[in-house]
Amino acid sequence: MSGLEGIALGALAAAIASGSLVGFTLGLVGGGGSILATPLLLYAVGVANPHVAIGTSALAVAASAYLALVGHARAGHVRWRCGLVFAVVGVLGALGGSSLGKAVDGQGLLFLFGLLMIVVGFLMLRPRRGPHVPEHPADLRTCAITAVTALGAGALSGFFGIGGGFLIVPALILATGMPMIGAVGTSLLAVGTFGLTTAVNYAASGLVDWPVAGLFIVGGLLGGQLGGRLAMRLAKQKATLQRIFAGLIFVVAAYVLWRSGQQFL
């Protein structure tokens, strides 16, 4: 597709609707945008090349994440110090990971992506042991732990061409002890930054479909606002967001594994 005129009406509608779903997911749980965006681009919009789908989704998710960040910031859900540390350090990992990911077979990359999603889904469902641990102060020690987790999450984010929210949210909770709604809001800063870094790397190789990315962003603007409002309503229900998050991951992981597995049969 070289422009909007090259996009069929059905694909255009699918791109906007898919972008709305991605934006809604980002606003609701701070992640899952890319694990939805890449399969939607491949199987709903009809992008043929997996690497182009990955590069395009990275750009669209970055924009949608920044848009969703605004609503969470206004509600006071963003821990800026930890979020900035995570975003800046994670970019280094994302650059290295995205360079490696471009060299891996597209279908093989998607299959590994599906396996990783299942692991993360189970980790999110695992109950916390012991009494509730209060949020850690944003001191030097917490920032150092945050930086280490950011480097690993950024590398995986870049390798799989994802914003990485489904990695960043649990990583932030682990490193800082912040509540789920705080991790959701804070993660959007890193999701946007990681996605933008990956998108720039892929764009340099001509692996971004700009018109489709634009349609995704338009849809993501509305979806992100709706998802953010629902997340705020569910914030007091401690396990609800985690369960929604994990359930979403399992559903998409199953579909990605099924579709990518067909290529090897």
From TrEMBL:
Its main location: membrane. The chain crosses the membrane at residues 6-29, 41-66, 78-96, 108-125, 145-169, 181-204, 210-228, 240-258. It is found in: Cell membrane; Membrane. Coiled coil: none annotated. It comes from the Bacteria. The keyword Transferase does not apply. Keywords: Cell membrane, Membrane, Transmembrane, Transmembrane helix. GO terms for cellular component: plasma membrane. It is a multi-pass membrane protein. Pfam families: TauE. Belongs to the 4-toluene sulfonate uptake permease (TSUP) (TC 2.A.102) family. This is Probable membrane transporter protein. It comes from Tistlia consotensis USBA 355.
